[in-house]
Amino acid sequence: MGEGLVVDEGVLQRLAYVLAATGAPHSPEVERPEVLPRVDGVIALDLPLDLAVSRVRERALARSWEFQSTEVMPAMATAVAHIAQVLGDNGVPMLTVDASKEVADERQRVRAFLAELART
Length: 120
Description:
The longest helix has 17 residues. This protein has five helices and three strands; from the N terminus they run βααβααβα. The protein has one domain. Helix 1 crosses helix 4. It is mainly alpha-helical. A three-stranded parallel β-sheet has the order 1-2-3, sandwiched between helices.
């Protein structure tokens, strides 16, 4: 199997944070290799914000206080969607995983996506 770089939603969230923190414009920055190397695929999580907020709050009690602040989540979701759009426009294959479906079903889709990427 050849080498490839597949990123997930967490990487896109971190990239969105860095871009927001530095005030850099999104589209040109996403395309610069020192910011995000050319990726072979993206796996994104389709998770409604209200569900994400409830999950964060359920798990955050034992974690750091920073996870209690959910006001930035809509802006983060918009930034991640923009980055994904730019990558998709540049021909990067994408898989969106539906958080409301059974994990086993989505796992099969992820495996098939990765297998397809390995063939190309």
